[in-house]
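2.7 Reproducibility. Because tokenized structures are sensitive to small changes in the input, we list the exact sequence used for histidine kinase, including any N-terminal residues retained from the expression construct. No trimming or masking was applied before prediction.
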Amino acid sequence: MLRLRTKLILGLTFLFAVTLAISMQGIYRIYQLDRDARQILQQNLHSIVYSNNMLRALETSPVQLSLLQQNLELQQHNITEHGEDALTASAAALVKQLQADPGNEALVKSLRHNVLQIAELNQEAIARKSTVASKTASNAILALSVFTLLSLSVYIIFILSFPQIISRPVGMLSTGIRQIAEKNYRTRIDLRPGDEFGELAAGVNSMAEKLQVYESSNLEQLKAEKTRLETIINSMHDGVIGFDEKRNILFMNTVAKRLCGPVKAPGNTVLETIVRHPAQQQLTIAHSGQTYTFIKEIMQVENNSEVMVLRDISAIQELAAAKTKFIATASHELKTPIASMQLSLSLLGDIRTGPLLPAQHELVNSLGEDVDRILKISTAILDATDEQLYAV
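Resulting structure tokens (single pass, no recycling of outputs):
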């Protein structure tokens, strides 16, 4: 298959050859016209001029023999037509006789008639050659017209066909590269190898094939990563909702779907409530006869998108309530024996119950201090627990 450079050289050579042929045809036809015109001027018009000069010499009195002889000699060297040589020879004989007898009118009359015949012969030749020249010009015009029309036809065919050699592969390459740029890596450019376009198409096809393999491997990897992330997100106990930069929902995990219900359902008040609720504040949602409490957190990601996390604190609140109940029960259970112990120690210290030995009195005071210490500790524990519950 021809290379692109060879195609261009052949195309330009063809144009040069056609142009050269038109030019040579025109030059040849012009040369023919010029040759016919020169023949008329050189062969016949000069003879007519010589004849007119000889007639002028014969009209004078006396006859100008020198002028007559001079033009006769020129005519003798310009004999071109059939029969002109005999007339010229007859005129030369008459001139010779006239030179011997200048006053002979009969010789002058005969010579005049002879010269007129030479002039008429050349005039007829001029008319005949003019007809031939006109026919030659007509033929030249016709030939040049036909040749020009044929050349124009060839030019038009060449102009319509030759650019396809360049534009067709360029268009196919442009379309294929555009498709590949749009990530349609299955596109292939169908150009046979052999020239520069074929080699370029083969390179682009090889690149597209490698990109297709690369995309397939990356796509499988991305799918695997997506599946893994979806599994992790769906296994979370917190609700997760992803939004794009236009606040359109990208994904929701199982917990969020269970709470919000169908996303595209008209009048989804639960989802609207979640979206409008301020961040970092508790949010209570009633669902399926149960009440859930969440802390709404917003995490900003690139491209102005965000991820909303609904942290479930219902279990924490239940645990806090259980702790409160336990502590209240424990407090009640602790204060009752402490109060009983304080009462018993108070009775022991009363003299009405009997005097105590110094050692016994010391033991009662020590027990009283221990009971007070236990009461202060339990009170401090209750206060600390209340502060923690308030913080939660």
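The CA atoms of residues 18 and 152 lie 9 Å apart.
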